[in-house]
RNA sequence: GCCGCGUUGGUCAAGGGGUUAAGACGCAUCCCUUUCACGGAUGAAUCACGGGUUCGAUUCCCGUACGCGGUACCA
């Protein structure tokens, strides 16, 4: 395995649906590794399964990466010297490699129909072996170029009989490699089935495509999820047969991200109320919408941060990392080998931290978009900036800003009158009437003045400030939340403050 | 079933032959705050089990259990 060549890594998604948390983390680790080593990050579309083509899925992946700020150096979009970057467009190139293997006796043609394969699985199925594989034992009982005569095989081929090319796994050999995360890993070849390399439609399977393309695209390090570990021996063998082990990239298999009960799925998201995809994804067939982290109100900075530390840490107590910090601190050997359960509460904590950490202007710009999406258009930027600064400790998601800021810009829609009604009385009614008269005459409309006047009037009416502060808050805010009530009044201004008090008085009266 | 990979509080995790086994999220209590938060303090809670190796194992080795992944002409 070479270590001196230029670092080139790739993320190779299959465009079949929403982009999963784990997928984004794989992108992130690839990206960090590439940037750290001054290498290239390639996005390769693995669309070899035409039956699973989903319109829009590819474009969606690009949008997710753009949002996350993890854009590739080479891809269908960016271009590059190693294209095409869509495997369906590379179709013609794979067959020769598969046939080369057949010639060398390392692979063979198989003519079994799907029905015959199904029959085989039925026939060989036992309690000890519930899922029989097409392996070194059963291949002798199937219809392939190993069991058929040369003439018969040639005839079938000439007649364009539907067939696949399968790798011929050696018998009882040990295939091993060094995983950058797990160390030595090895497999017995007898236990691995003769994977299909080239499908009947002429498309390669993942197994063939991944090694051919990694070779052709000069990939130096191949990172992928742990679910690929069991098929690694096939890939290693293919490298050995086709391009030489010395040219093989270094492998690292990342741990899986788990949900509350095992493997994380979009169902978990629906069930537990948290996103699983990076961005909103609507299934074009069913029209089903699955919510994304972006729309849920996550900052890309936070999303990246929380993903980075789900399975990796730098050994210090630091938990908050910017992308740049991650680029310099990340290291594959500190990536865990065990899966991590996704904790939505902690995810929200990261977002909250980033809301506090982000530059005020930057935060405000993003809040502005979120408010606009909810139909609240704010044109006074300086005012919004002030308001956002005032309430940001109370928002852990960007979407929380709606409830936390809307009352500054429009009269509260829902008034929590129940919070004041039980203890409401004539004295308080008169008190607020006096407050209105006083505020109308107040020239210095500052929080401190308003508070002092308010308290003086309360004292004169034998009211404790605490008895009337909450009612005032409800009048201005609509509910029991928000920053210091007189700060709110100051920002609302004289006319609006008085108007809201009056309005509520009317409701209570 | 078989194969592979894992296993430190509820969760993320540091650590790695001798430690009072960090820290964070969450939770609880208190302080601050005449709201809700922020912030501060305190607390409950962990080395899956059994054998070795060793003067000494959470740490190394072997089993077992458990979890996860794979077992497709899907990736």
Automatic annotation (TrEMBL):
Its EC number is 6.1.1.17. PROSITE patterns: AA_TRNA_LIGASE_I. Its main location: cytoplasm. Keywords: Aminoacyl-tRNA synthetase, ATP-binding, Cytoplasm, Ligase, Nucleotide-binding, Protein biosynthesis. It is found in: Cytoplasm. GO terms for molecular function: glutamate-tRNA ligase activity. The keyword Zinc-finger does not apply. The keyword Transport does not apply. Catalyzes the attachment of glutamate to tRNA(Glu) in a two-step reaction: glutamate is first activated by ATP to form Glu-AMP and then transferred to the acceptor end of tRNA(Glu). This is Glutamate--tRNA ligase. It comes from Niabella pedocola.
């Amino acid at each position: 395995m070479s270590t001196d060549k230029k670092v080139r890594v790739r993320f190779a998604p299959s465009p079949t649906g929403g982009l999963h948390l784990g997928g984004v983390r794989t992108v992130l680790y690839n990206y960090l590794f590439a940037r750290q080593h001054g290498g290239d990050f390639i996005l390769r579309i693995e669309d070899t399964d035409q039956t699973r083509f989903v319109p829009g899925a590819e474009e969606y992946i690009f949008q997710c990466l753009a949002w996350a700020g993890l854009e590739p150096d080479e891809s269908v979009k960016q271009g590059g010297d190693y294209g095409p970057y869509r495997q369906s467009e590379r179709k013609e190139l794979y067959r020769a490699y598969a046939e080369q293997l057949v010639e060398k006796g390392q692979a063979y043609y198989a003519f079994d129909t799907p029905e015959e394969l199904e029959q085989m699985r039925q026939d060989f199925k036992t309690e000890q072996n519930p899922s029989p594989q097409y392996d070194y034992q059963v291949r002798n009982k199937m219809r392939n170029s190993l069991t058929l005569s040369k003439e018969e095989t040639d005839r079938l081929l000439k007649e364009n009989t539907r067939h696949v090319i399968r790798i011929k796994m050696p018998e009882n050999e040990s295939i091993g490699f060094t995983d950058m995360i797990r160390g030595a890993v090895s497999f017995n070849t007898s236990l691995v089935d003769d994977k299909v390399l080239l499908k009947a439609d002429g498309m390669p399977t993942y197994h063939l495509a991944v090694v051919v393309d990694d070779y052709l695209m000069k990939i130096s390090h191949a990172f992928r999820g742990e679910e690929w570990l069991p098929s690694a021996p096939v890939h290693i063998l293919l490298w050995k047969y086709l391009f030489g082990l010395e040219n093989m990239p270094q492998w690292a298999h990342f741990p899986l991200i788990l949900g509350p009960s095992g493997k994380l799925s979009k169902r978990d998201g629906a069930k537990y109320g948290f996103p699983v995809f990076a961005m909103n994804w609507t299934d074009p067939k069913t029209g089903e919408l699955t919510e994304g982290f972006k729309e849920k109100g996550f900052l890309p900075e936070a999303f990246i941060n929380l993903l980075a530390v789900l399975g990796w840490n730098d050994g210090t107590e630091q938990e908050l990392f910017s992308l740049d910090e991650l680029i310099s601190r990340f290291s594959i050997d500190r990536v865990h080998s065990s899966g991590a359960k996704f904790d939505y509460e902690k995810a929200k904590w990261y977002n909250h931290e980033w809301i506090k950490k982000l530059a005020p202007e930057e935060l405000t710009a993003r809040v502005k978009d979120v408010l606009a999406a909810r139909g609240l258009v704010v044109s006074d930027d300086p005012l919004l900036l002030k308001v956002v600064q005032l309430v940001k400790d109370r928002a852990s998601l960007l979407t929380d800003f709606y409830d936390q800021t809307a009352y500054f810009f429009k009269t509260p829609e829902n008034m929590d009158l129940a919070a004041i009604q039980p203890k409401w009385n004539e004295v308080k009614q008169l008190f607020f009437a006096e407050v209105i008269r006083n505020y109308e005459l107040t020239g210095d409309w500052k929080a401190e003045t308003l508070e002092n006047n308010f308290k003086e009037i309360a004292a004169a009416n034998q009211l404790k400030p605490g008895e009337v502060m909450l009612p005032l808050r409800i009048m201005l805010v609509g509910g029991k939340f928000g920053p210091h009530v007189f700060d709110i009044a100051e920002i609302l201004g004289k006319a609006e403050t008085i108007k809201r008090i009056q309005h509520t008085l009317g409701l209570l009266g």
